[in-house]
From TrEMBL:
GO cellular component, one term: plasma membrane
Topology of this chain in the membrane: Peripheral membrane protein
PANTHER family: LIPOPOLYSACCHARIDE HEPTOSYLTRANSFERASE 1, TETRAACYLDISACCHARIDE 4'-KINASE-RELATED
InterPro entries: Glyco_trans_9, LipoPS_heptosylTferase-I, LPS_LOS_Heptosyltrfase
Catalytic activity, EC: 2.4.99.23
CDD domains: GT9_LPS_heptosyltransferase
GO molecular function annotation: ADP-heptose-lipopolysaccharide heptosyltransferase activity
Reaction it catalyzes: an alpha-Kdo-(2->4)-alpha-Kdo-(2->6)-lipid A + ADP-L-glycero-beta-D-manno-heptose = an L-alpha-D-Hep-(1->5)-[alpha-Kdo-(2->4)]-alpha-Kdo-(2->6)-lipid A + ADP + H(+)
Cited NCBIfam families: heptsyl_trn_I (TIGR02193)
Localization terms from the record: Cell inner membrane
Family under the similarity heading: Belongs to the glycosyltransferase 9 family.
Protein name (Swiss-Prot/TrEMBL): Lipopolysaccharide heptosyltransferase 1
Record organism: Paraburkholderia panacisoli
One annotated GO biological process: lipopolysaccharide core region biosynthetic process
Length: 334
């Protein structure tokens, strides 16, 4: 096998958690080239992967919102890049119309996708010449690895390998100092995924007492206002300026601890091997959570608001061992 195309178009957290599929394929087939098709909005993230050989992208999301002629021309031009090589396999681990169209337009006689009951949009089935087995129960991220292995005929082995390398920051993400830094990702795309601001304040105060400095990123005016409410009540905390995706990733990489709700940047923190606590209110931690011994842990049952005590216990857990010990522990898992 010479070349494989992975199709996973959006979103940030899903793409992050799909990246280990590339390392799995390259372990199973040394020397294989693995390309990746994504929406332009998330292409920079895929470029950070040292395992992906070629990143294909188009402004699909932007065109859907604005319907600009320039974006349509960019999409049309991207088809030439998509068809530049013939692929031995195309693996669509997204399963909606746009990913199926990408798979159909690319050059291959073997296009593998989910079974109809597992598709995000059932009409996507038109593009596939073969199907994965039934989607495995349990963790969705491990399930993607299983599905790709079924398609290409290999067994999944060991913990996920993300293999990310961020570009060097142009400037420091926050003022340096002797205190360890904890980032709070309090903002979410949906209100039912939010953890109460009073809970963030309580955890922030506890971390401040332990000598941490809390930093608060944001993406909208409303999120900034909430960050300012938290910072006003937490000693030695800072509301960060508006940052790009790359700058937020670099900020995460400079932190000692990341605490946040079920959002893409917290999944990225896990992939960057930061000490990570992910809080669940309305989504399933068993399906979408993160876990790595003494480094990453999910809190909550996905149906109720986790108490402050549970989050503090999770923070204690991920801070309980030096990273070197946690790394040794991880090497024995899987």
């Amino acid at each position: 096998m010479k070349r494989v195309l992975i199709v996973k178009v959006t979103s940030l957290g899903d793409i992050v958690q799909a990246l280990p599929v590339v390392a799995d394929i390259k372990r199973a087939f040394p020397g294989v080239q693995v390309d990746w098709a994504a929406d332009e909005a998330f292409a920079e993230l895929v470029h950070w992967s040292e395992s992906v050989d070629r990143v294909l992208c188009a402004p699909l999301r932007r065109f859907k919102k604005a319907r600009r002629w320039g974006d349509l021309k960019a999409i049309w031009a991207s088809i030439a890049d998509l068809r530049a090589y013939r692929y031995d396999f195309i693996i669509d681990i997204h399963g909606v119309y746009k990913s199926a169209i990408i798979a159909f337009l690319a050059r291959s006689s073997r296009r593998i996708g989910y079974q109809s009951q597992d598709l995000g949009e059932r009409g996507a089935a038109f593009a596939y010449t073969g199907r994965f087995g039934p989607r495995p129960q349990g963790n969705a991220w491990h399930g993607m690895r299983i599905s790709a292995g079924e398609a290409l005929g290999y067994e999944v082995e060991g913990p996920p390998i993300y293999n990310l390398r961020l570009p060097e920051p142009v400037r420091e993400p926050f003022e340096s100092g002797s205190a360890p830094v904890a980032a709070f990702f309090h903002a979410t795309s949906k209100d039912d995924k939010k953890w109460p601001l009073t809970h963030w304040v309580a955890v922030g105060r506890e971390l401040a007492e332990r000598g941490f400095r809390v930093v608060l990123p944001w993406g909208s005016a409303g999120e900034r206002a909430e960050a300012e409410q938290i910072a006003a009540q937490v000693p030695n905390s800072t509301v960060l300026p508006k940052m790009s995706v790359t700058e937020i990733a670099q900020m995460i990489d400079a932190c000692s601890l990341v605490v946040g709700t079920d959002t893409g940047f917290v999944h990225l923190a896990h992939a960057l091997q930061k000490r990570t606590v992910m809080i669940f209110m309305a989504t399933s931690p068993s399906h979408c959570g993160v876990e790595s011994p003494y480094r990453s842990i999910s809190v909550g049952d996905g149906q109720s608001v986790p108490p402050i005590s549970a989050t503090l216990a999770a923070i204690n857990y991920v801070l309980s061992e030096p990273l070197e010990s946690a790394a040794r522990q991880r090497s024995t898992v899987g």
